[in-house]
Specification:
The structure holds 2 protein chains of 2 kinds.
Chain A lengths: L1 H27 L4 H6 L8 H11 L5 H13 L13 H36 L4 H15 L2 H15 L16 H35 L2 H8 L4 H29 L3 H6 L5 H10 L3 H29 L1 H4 L4
Chain B lengths: L2 E12 L7 E11 L3 E5 L6 H8 L8 E11 L5 E3 L5 H7 L4 E4 L13 H13 L3 H14 L5 H4 L9 H13 L5 E5 L7 H18 L2 E6 L2 H4 L5 E6 L2 E7 H6 L4 H8 L26 E14 L4 E16 L4 E5 L6 H8 L7 E6 L12 E4 L13 H11 L6 H13 L16 H13 L5 E5 L7 H18 L2 E6 L2 H7 L2 E6 L2 E7 H6 L4 H9 L21 E3 L9 E3 L4 E4 L3
Parallel strand pairs in B: 3-8, 3-9, 6-7, 7-8, 13-17, 13-18, 15-16, 16-17
Antiparallel strand pairs in B: 1-2, 1-4, 4-5, 9-10, 11-12, 11-14, 12-20, 18-19, 19-22, 21-22
Helix pairs in contact in B: 3-4, 3-6, 4-6, 6-7, 7-18, 12-14, 13-14, 14-15
The chains are: A mainly alpha, B alpha/beta.
């Protein structure tokens, strides 16, 4: 509990640092929101009109004042108004987030469901042909770019089976779960496949390490059957690197997957952030990067709590 | 007596082509029920492989039994050839009929499971117990190995217990199902001598209680006297000598057995101690190293704000001096502060208080680095990516000296002096054996021409025969260069052979110091007595030890705690001990 309190205390500090970095870096990009929004028509604006628009979006003041105003709002939950959407930033983010969260969760479930058993299997068949096959498969999975797999999946499904992935207007899960899953399964597989390859490789190597540890020998000397040696004695020890990797990948996915969202026409966080940057939508960029950073920190905290659950040396404090 | 185990012509190989990489070459022995066979040998002698072949754990380490049979008399009276048994049968025998304990109790228990879960597992597997019954059985098993407060310890995780306690847990697990045979593979090697004595006593007692047979594997022939009925000595995968205990110990036939026996200490008269230097005879020169009131404390923090709540008093007011040409052995058990003392003298740890001054011994020693160190593990203390010439040049460069012709001349001279060929300069550390690496470490320490060399467990990782040669080398170098050695070790047998004077360290303080012969043959402090009586000796046959469960006291003290000043009692010209409360 003590530990948790200390960790939570660092959250606001990190958020503050991230917000300053984003604030400065987005303003270092040349161009401004009004021009980006109106295009060539921006040239027709009278100075008064332009000033009014800038005041409306809160970009008429100096950087420091802008930042201070933004920060004051942010601590009260007001992240400002998006220039491109004309809506509060928080609303825009929360509209997109469920999709991104669902996609990330589905990918992780797929990755662990494939990667963990594959890695364990390969480790127990070390250097045998079946191990080699798993390793080659994992290597291909990790080195194939997302879009190649995505396009391949669409091609195989449409040409081979005559089924088209359910495109069109995105349906939230709660509205129509079946239709939603139909839309999500291909992108989730696309992301999950590469993720699974990484999980396979790391669980295989962790498992191999653990299997040569002394306490595994002890377990065997006690007469523990092979299957139980793997699941009860080796796996809990081998999970730590897998949890680390999954945490990082999951946190990364929560920031959105631009390419996959683009290919499957999904309105996720990734595309939104990209558009916001292109449009110089300062408020939206700031708000979403802050949101993504917060997600990452929460995921990291969960990873650390998972360590503590898995390993009593972390839970109870080492000697 | 009925035969329990009969091994004949066992041959074991490793790797992809086990025939080409044979480790055990046709070993045969018999073991009757209730009998103990000790297998003695150095690393690489094949003793562990032989043992692991019996319960076929060797299969999991990449080994294969090439030939021979292992006839085991099972509980139901049938004989089974374990060498040809299937995995399913073996799973029932392992843990149920053959128990095994290992060298490293710290790593041999699963860190994520509680002690209780790991002991219960045996009862679940072999006795079919579940739930409360299994828990009760586990508690009884812990009681049997004399672990105090067993019910509470069941909920502990391995990292919360000391090495000695963990080895008891291992023994409890191995004996949980009353196996007919216990294989103990160097069960006390990783433990302190006093803890070793406790574990040996426990094993001897449990053997009497249960009547099980035992195979006891060790590199220390001194240990077998207390426990074995028969001894088998192994070298390079062959049994070079075997017979009843008394015959092997008293009338060894093979030269290798004689050699092993010669390394066993005899403290009674301090016979084996060195006589080439005596304080009384030496001119009263300036000491090479003088340490006064050395104190090292590590802060202990607690609470949300990590305020300091106390301190670990690792070293508390240590005084001694060391003359040129003299060896001071610092002995003590793990956690006694002996290594911290050594590290503080080298500046690797910041001392809290106290002074030490090293005499650079006049103009001849210009390097200005009078103290150098040799570490315990020769495999870890040489950078694997550096060639030997770079390794030897490093201290010179670090001390600000350039690489000159004389540096190379000194490298070649030192390599020659430590007994390595000159072409060693162009090679990498992995091309050398453990003993050779330690010679390299010694050469490195001597590159700057120090007056004091700190040897922290410098030969502890080496086999007995290699140890003897390295010790000889150290003695020669000491005479040649007039070096003063600070020899830190837990191993009394080694200290006996290298030290002129001995300081016994306990809980961060020197409790007894004096010339080696007096301290070893006539110890005064209770702790020194306990330490010396715990050292295994071939003279004490089948002696029953008292099981002593005392632990080293906690060194964590509240803030501002100061120990009472020492009250020394003198026993002769150079021998004093701290008065006990």
């Amino acid at each position: 509990m003590n530990y948790l309190a200390r960790r939570l205390m660092t959250f606001p500090l990190v958020m503050l640092g991230v917000s300053v970095l984003v604030f400065v870096s987005i303003r270092l990009v040349p161009g401004d929101a009004i021009t980006a929004m109106l295009g060539t028509e921006a040239g027709l604006l009278t100075p008064d009109q332009r000033a009014a628009l800038e005041a409306y979006f809160g970009i008429d003041q100096g950087w420091f004042t802008q930042y201070w105003r933004w920060l004051a709002g942010a601590v009260q939950g007001d992240l400002g108004v998006s220039v491109t959407f004309g809506k509060p930033v928080l609303d825009v983010i929360l509209e997109r987030f469920p999709l991104t969260l669902e996609l990330a969760l589905l990918s992780m479930v797929i990755a662990l469901a494939i990667g963990l058993p594959a890695g364990i299997f390969a480790a127990t068949r070390n250097e045998k042909p079946s191990d080699l096959a798993v390793r080659i498969f994992a290597m291909i999975g990790q080195s194939t770019p997302n879009f190649v797999f995505a396009l391949l999946a669409i091609y195989v499904l449409s040409v081979g089976f005559g089924v088209l992935p359910a495109m069109g207007e995105f349906t939230p899960f709660l509205e129509n779960p079946l239709r939603n899953l139909g839309q999500m399964i291909l992108p989730a597989l696309t992301l999950g496949f590469a993720f699974a390859a990484a999980v396979t490789r790391i669980s295989r190597s962790a498992m191999l390490d653990i299997l040569s540890d002394d306490y595994i020998r002890t377990a065997r000397a006690k007469g523990v059957p092979a299957r139980k040696v793997i699941w009860r004695h080796a796996l809990p020890n081998a999970l730590i690197p897998v949890v680390t990797l999954s945490g990082v990948e999951f946190g990364y996915l929560l920031g959105g997957a631009v390419i996959v969202e683009q290919i499957f026409a999904l309105p996720g966080l990734g595309r939104m952030v990209l558009d916001a940057i292109l449009q110089r939508d300062y408020a939206l960029v700031q708000g979403s990067v802050l949101f993504i950073a917060l997600n990452f920190m929460i995921v990291n905290l969960l990873v650390d709590l998972a360590y503590a659950m898995l390993d009593p040396r972390i839970r109870l404090g080492g000697k | 007596m009925t035969s329990l185990l009969s091994v004949s012509n066992l041959r074991v190989g490793f790797g992809r082509k086990p025939e080409d990489n044979e480790i055990v070459h046709g070993v045969s022995f018999d073991l009757a029920a209730g009998e103990t066979l000790a297998i003695v040998g150095e690393s690489g002698s094949g003793k562990s492989v032989t043992a692991l072949s019996i319960n076929r754990l060797v299969d999991f380490g990449g080994g294969r039994i090439l030939d021979g049979s292992i006839q085991f008399n099972r509980e139901n009276g049938t004989m089974l050839d374990l060498a040809a048994a299937g995995e399913q049968e073996l799973t029932k025998i392992r843990g149920g009929e053959i128990g095994m304990i290992f060298q490293e109790p710290m790593t041999s228990l699963n860190p994520v499971l509680t002690i209780g879960e790991q002991i219960e597992e045996s009862f679940r597997l072999h006795r079919g117990l579940t739930g409360r019954q299994a828990r009760e059985a586990a508690k009884d098993a812990l009681d049997r190995v004399r672990i105090p407060d067993a019910a509470r310890r069941l909920k502990y995780c391995p990292h919360q217990l000391s090495g000695g306690m963990l080895q008891r847990v291992m023994i409890a697990t191995a004996l949980s199902c009353n196996p007919r045979l216990l294989i103990a593979d160097e069960p006390t090697t990783a433990l302190d001598v006093t803890v070793q004595a406790q574990i040996m006593a426990l094993l001897a007692e449990l053997k009497r209680e249960t009547g099980m047979g035992m195979i006891f594997i060790t590199h220390d022939i001194g240990l077998v006297a207390g426990i074995a009925d028969k001894v088998m000595v192994m070298q390079n995968g062959e049994a070079v000598e075997q017979g009843p205990l008394d015959a092997v110990l008293d009338a060894p036939q093979h030269p290798y057995t004689k050699h092993l026996l010669s390394a066993v200490p005899h403290f009674e008269a301090g016979r084996a101690t060195r006589t080439d230097y005596r304080r009384a005879d030496a001119p009263s020169a300036a000491p090479a190293l003088k340490v006064e009131g050395l104190t090292v404390r590590f802060p202990v923090t607690g609470g949300l704000l990590r305020r300091q709540t106390g301190a670990v008093h690792a070293v508390d007011g240590v005084d001694f001096d060391l003359m040129p040409g003299e060896t001071l052995g610092i002995v003590g058990e793990s956690g006694s502060g002996k290594s911290t003392t050594a590290r503080a003298i080298l500046g690797l740890v910041e001392p809290t208080r106290g002074t030490f001054s090293a005499n650079t011994n006049g103009a001849a020693r210009q390097s200005g680095k009078p103290v150098q160190m040799v570490f315990q593990n020769p495999y870890a203390s040489l950078n694997p990516r550096l060639r030997v010439d770079s390794i030897l040049a490093e201290p010179v460069i670090a001390a600000g000296g350039g690489l000159k012709g004389e540096t190379h001349a000194r490298m070649r001279m030192l390599l020659d002096r430590v007994g390595l060929p000159e072409n060693a300069l162009q090679r990498y550390p992995h091309e050398f054996s453990g003993g050779q690496r330690q010679r390299l470490c010694i050469a490195r320490a001597l590159m700057l021409n120090p007056s004091v060399v700190v040897l922290d467990e410098a030969v502890s990782a080496l086999d007995v025969s290699v140890q003897a040669k390295v010790l000889e080398l150290l003695v020669d170098l000491q005479r040649e260069f007039g070096l003063a050695y600070l020899f830190v070790s837990h191993d009394m047998a080694v200290v006996e052979r290298i030290a002129h004077r001995i300081a016994v360290v306990y809980a961060g303080q020197i409790v007894e110091i004096g010339d080696a012969a007096s301290v070893l043959s006539d110890p005064k402090h209770a702790y020194t007595k306990r330490l010396i009586s715990a050292v295994p000796s071939v003279d004490r046959r089948k002696e029953t030890f008292e099981v002593d469960t005392r632990q080293v006291p906690s060194l964590v003290r509240p803030l501002g705690f100061e120990p009472e000043p020492a009250n020394w009692q003198s026993f002769g010209p150079d021998h004093m001990a701290r008065a006990e409360a």
